[in-house]
Amino acid sequence: MYSFDSRIRYSEIDDKGRLSLPGLINYFQDCSTFQSEDIGLGMEHLQKRNKAWILSYWQIEITRYPKLGERVKTGTFATGFKGLYGRRNFMMLDEGQQVVARADSVWAFLDMEKGRPTRPDEEDIQPYGIEPALDMKDEGRKIKRLEKGYEFPAFTVKRCHIDTNKHVNNGQYVQMAMELLPEDLQVNRLRVEYKKSALYKDVIFPRFSVEEERTVVELCDKSGSLYAIMEVMN
Question: Could you read off the pLDDT of 75-89 as tens digits, one per residue?
Fold first, then answer.
């Protein structure tokens, strides 16, 4: 497992003094990025080849949110590669080596010039290795769409939402979706499916619904096609 040590910063906490959900996702994303950089398959290497690993799916389970100042270890490892996709697990541990959060994820290898997934070469995957997956229930990669939901005012993608791939960063979609969730909703289990990339100045049309076993936020374009969908399991 690749890992790095850190401490929960004030800039990463919510109004309760705990690591925010987008903050946790940033830790996971940073961990995979650091690994790629350290094995020579980082951002500049991929950009020169017009390639990128793009997140397709998150499944995250949170035991507790670490508090301001806590020291944590964030780790990641690949669990398999098949066709156009790679699968990767994450975990965050506290000072007592207890797992406070863990995740499964699916990534697509993208040809940025053509704008579509392509099969990675052996040199793109071999340095990561493969380790046994975490013991997590596989909830499936497809999230059921809303049959009906509340529609909220549309908003425009800003510069602060965009990452080095010139798309809305995966964590930013979660931040957008969090704005629609009830303030008292405790998020311990969630899934996020990413369908297409939103770009700077695109307009996002949100939909929201609380169902018997889940709470769902859809982030759509004007036609109703999904950019991303987030499901919080009750």
Answer: 999 999 999 999 999
